[in-house]
Structure formats: structure tokens, C-alpha cells
């Protein structure tokens, strides 16, 4: 997990095809149920292109490299049914109505398309002042709209929720 890339830090990276910069990375296209990144949205002038992970030569902290020889007109189609919501707009619903936590980020393995972990916090990314807890992706199940914690993640995430509840009570008049 040490070599994993933080998904939100990738936005704005240059996207290259051979020696030509074709745009900037606008976002990732997720398949949370399979714990994978399927592709990327690329902002290219007035257009938004979609690029399958399989059509790339590599992703680093510095750039995304699209395989040479793929016509730009062919990069846009085929990703329509996969989730495009930014990862930091998703939630984790705790069991038994114990509360809702927020996904702050995803971490992916740059050598594969695997999502290895999610960062989860008590507050949404815009309001969070501290980093969240890094939870292995295998400890969260995707329902199609939100995540549900599995196994050992449940007590950890309940503790995060309890910390938020306690801080709210301490601030109450």
C-alpha cells in the first residue's frame, strides 16, 4: 500500500499520448463493487474523453500515459455504465443506524487497476480538518449507492463515529 496513489491527487495531471499532451486528468471512472478503476476522464480543450485503463501505458504521480496508436475519436465511448461520481462524494453507512461516515479518498495500485484502500472520515472532505482512517477496500462492500463496512472495519468505523458524536456533544450549549 505504500506505493499506492491517492485518487484525488491525480486530478489535473497531464495526460500524454506519445510525445503529445492530449489533456489533463479530470477524474477516475470507478467500479467500486469490483474494487477497480476502469478508466479515466480526460479534459481536452472543449471535449471530455474517456480512456479505458487497458488503453494506458502507465500512471504515475506525474502523468497518465495513453497508448500510442489509439485514435482520439475512439477514446470517448464505452464507459457509460460505470460510476463517475467523485470518490470524495460517497458515504459509508454503519449497520443498525449507527451513523454515516464519508469517503475522503481512494488509494489505487498504479501497476494494476485495483483500489487497495479508502480513506474514511467523520466529516465530508470539504469540512475535514484531519486525515481519515485508511480502510482496506476488502473491508467495504458497495451497495450501488454507498458502502457498508464488513468484519473488522465495523468497530473501527463505529469508533470514528463515536468520536464525532462526542465532539458534537462537547460543543453543544
How do the strands line up in the largest sheet? Answer: 5-4-3-2-7-6
Q: Cα-atom Rg, whole angstroms?
A: 18 Å
Order of helices and strands: EHEEEEEEEEEEEEH
Structural class: mainly beta
Tertiary shape:
elongated
Query: Which strand-content bin applies to the residues?
Result: 35-45%
Outline the secondary-structure elements.
Elements: E1 5-6, H1 7-10, E2 14-17, E3 20-31, E4 36-44, E5 47-52, E6 56-59, E7 64-66, E8 91-93, E9 100-108, E10 115-121, E11 133-136, E12 140-142, E13 147-149, H2 153-171
Parallel strand pairs: 2-7
Antiparallel strand pairs: 1-9, 2-3, 3-4, 4-5, 6-7, 8-9, 9-10, 10-11, 12-13
Characterise the protein shown here.
This protein is mainly β and 173 residues long. 13% of the residues lie in helices and 40% in strands. The chain contains 2 helices and 13 strands; from the N terminus they run βαββββββββββββα. The strands form 3 sheets. A 6-stranded mixed β-sheet has the order 5-4-3-2-7-6. A hairpin with a 6-residue loop joins strand 9 and strand 10. The longest helix has 19 residues. The N and C termini lie far apart (43 Å). The C terminus is likely disordered.
Which properties best describe this structure?
five-stranded antiparallel sheet, 2 helices, six-stranded mixed sheet, 173 residues, mainly beta
Describe the structure concisely.
With 173 residues, the chain is mainly beta.
Amino acid at each position: 500500500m505504500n506505493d499506492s496513489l491517492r485518487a484525488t491527487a491525480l486530478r489535473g495531471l497531464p495526460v500524454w499520448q506519445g510525445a503529445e499532451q492530449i489533456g489533463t486528468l479530470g477524474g477516475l471512472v470507478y467500479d467500486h463493487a469490483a474494487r477497480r478503476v476502469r478508466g479515466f476522464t480526460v479534459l481536452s480543450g472543449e471535449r471530455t474523453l474517456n480512456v479505458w485503463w487497458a488503453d494506458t501505458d502507465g500512471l504515475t504521480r506525474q502523468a497518465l500515459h495513453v497508448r500510442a496508436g489509439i485514435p482520439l475519436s475512439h477514446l470517448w465511448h464505452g464507459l457509460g455504465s460505470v460510476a463517475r461520481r467523485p470518490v470524495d462524494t460517497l458515504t459509508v453507512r454503519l449497520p443498525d443506524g449507527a451513523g454515516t461516515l464519508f469517503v475522503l479518498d481512494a488509494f489505487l495500485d498504479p501497476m494494476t487497476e485495483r483500489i487497495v484502500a479508502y480513506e474514511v472520515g467523520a466529516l465530508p472532505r470539504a469540512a475535514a480538518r484531519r486525515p481519515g482512517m485508511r480502510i482496506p477496500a476488502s473491508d467495504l462492500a458497495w451497495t450501488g449507492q454507498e458502502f457498508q463496512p464488513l468484519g473488522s472495519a465495523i468497530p473501527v468505523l463505529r469508533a470514528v463515529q463515536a468520536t464525532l458524536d462526542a465532539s458534537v456533544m462537547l460543543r453543544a450549549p
